[in-house]
Amino acid sequence: MSRTLSLLALSILVVGVAEGKKKKEEAPPPVGWHKVEATKKDPGWRGECYYPPDFEALNTTERRVARQVALEQIKKQWLGQRDEIVSFDARMVDDLDTVLLGRPEAIETVATKNAELCQPVMASGGDTGAWSSWLSSLPRTLTAGECNTPLDYQLIQYLDLGQGWQERIPMCKGNRAIIQASASDQYRVQQGGEWINAEGDLMQASTDPSLPCNFEGCYVGMLIGRFVTDGGIETVFPIGLEKVFEAPEHGVFSFTINDTTAWDNEWHSSGTITDHTAITVSPADDY
User: Fold this and answer.
1) DSSP code at position 104
2) What number is the average pLDDT over the span 207-214?
3) Per residue in 249-269, pLDDT tens?
4) Bridge partners (DSSP) listed for residue 254
5) In the predicted model, is pLDDT for residue 237 greater than 70?
6) Which residues contact 32 (CB under 8 A, 6 or more apart)?
7) Pair 163, 227 in one domain
8) Which CATH number fits the domain that encloses residue 250?
9) According to the model, what pLDDT value does residue 276 have?
10) Sorting pLDDT into bands at 50, 70 and 90, what band is 5?
11) Could you tell me if 111 and 200 lie in one domain?
12) In a shared domain, residues 81 and 198
């Protein structure tokens, strides 16, 4: 009987230990700020990481609230408001915040991935380089294929003879712009040269490879445009006094004059009046 009781007690003990281990293994993951505390065998973490809840387990209202809470909390860490270990560029954080506010669903995956990248930094004492690189890439990744900056406004700017490519005017694929320059304003791009307007010197076709516009239709000193797609493909084209341009992809439009030197450029003056070419960029959907 004694032997039977001993075996029974041992069985109960083994089962109890097993159940204890099982319960420990099945403990729910942390939610909110958490760090592994130091023990005799483990030095623990040097800082905390924010763990978002299981969004799938929440109802619609709870899920929306949890997203905003998660974003507010991890932004504090990104901006260095939690500890001295993490502090990212504020402009980078602002850019990402703007993107996420327009895509609240993405906060869930961002918050989850953020916790994954935080853990090794806090546990091993590693640097935040990979974490920072991931954050800086998110605006581009989350908006891939989208365009939130259509040309739906008119811009009027004066041409600067002493500057290279001027303005950065975003356009979405398919946007059509009418680009116009005032015809009465004159300048010259060579000392003692001819006075010209944005059409350029029509007696000097641009064949010099050092000029940005050096193919048929380009003239020295004329107003020219450049369009750089989001993928980095650059196109230079002549404008003159007026041109309708359609964006082939999402990108940015700029303009300048077809010239390589600025020191000898000069505006035409008459008495107290000095010319200044006005450049107007407007939507041309109905043009």
Assistant:
1) T
2) 93
3) 999 999 999 999 999 999 999
4) 226
5) yes
6) 50, 51, 73
7) yes
8) 2.60.120
9) 97
10) very low
11) no
12) no
What is the pLDDT confidence band of residue 66, given thresholds at 50, 70 and 90?
very high
With beta carbons less than 8 A apart as the criterion, state whether 250 and 173 touch: yes
Are 33 and 67 part of one and the same domain?
Answer: yes
Report percent pLDDT > 90 for the chain. Answer: 79
Classify residue 168: in a domain, yes or no.
Answer: yes
Q: Torsion angle, CA of 92/94/96/98, rounded to 10 degrees? A: -150
Rounded Cα distance between 284 and 287, Å, is 5
Res. 11 pLDDT band, cuts 50 70 90: low
Strand partners, 187: 196, 267
**In 102-251, where does DSSP find H-type helix?**
106-124, 129-142
The answer to whether residue 2 sits within a structural domain is no
User: Would you call 255 helix, strand, or coil by DSSP?
Assistant: strand
Both 115 and 159 in a single domain?
no
Of 265, 263, 276, the residue nearest 189 (C-alpha) = 265
Burial 209-226 (b: 16+ CB within 10 A, else e): eebbbeeeebbbbbbbbb
Q: Are residues 173 and 276 in the same domain?
A: yes
Residues 164 and 270 in one domain: yes
Alpha carbons 234 and 113: distance in angstroms, whole number: 35
Domain count for the chain: 2
The domain containing residue 254 runs over which residues?
155-283
Residue type, position 45, single letter: W
User: Helix (H) and strand (E) counts for the chain?
Assistant: 5, 16
DSSP state of 256: E
CB-based contacts of 190-193 (< 8 A; 24+ apart in sequence): 190/264, 191/264, 191/266
Helix or strand holding residue 245 (H, E): strand 242-246
Q: Does residue 101 fall inside a structural domain?
A: yes
Gyration radius of the chain's alpha carbons: 32
